[in-house]
Amino acid sequence: MIFVRINYSDEKIVDSDKSIFLAGPTPRGENAKSWRVDACKKLEELGFDGVVYVPEYSSWKPKEDYVDQAMWEREGLTKASIIVFWIPRSLPDMPAFTTNVEFGYWLHSKKDNLWKTR
Asked: Does pLDDT of 65 surpass 70?
């Protein structure tokens, strides 16, 4: 059986020749469910057998401190084979304002950027 290897932001970045970074808004409150849970399940259903970089804690709980997050994300985005963007435009829960900047930065990279908006 093929399993997705999820690499959370409270773990050291795992190197892989086949990897996807799930870029997009991260829930900030206890009541908001992460969209990345369903994305990881879908990748497993599709048989993806690489590493999925998830910029959230393995507990899926919101972070209290984001100081270490920027460096982890930069490394994950740099090492990822593909960056998948989800930009929901859901105010006030998931506005994705920071995601706008990330998308613009990585748009012209040599990576295969995939993105979806609602």
From this structure: no
56 near 9, Cβ under 8 Å? yes
CA 58 – CA 72 distance, rounded (Å): 14
Query: What pLDDT is recorded for position 118?
Result: 42
Per-residue H/E/C for the chain? CCCCEEEECCCCCCCCCCEEEEECCCCCCCCCCCHHHHHHHHHHHCCCCCEEEECCCCCCCCCCCCCCHHHHHHHHHHHCCEEEEEECCECCCECCHHHHHHHHHHCCCCCEEEEEEC
pTM of the model: 0.83
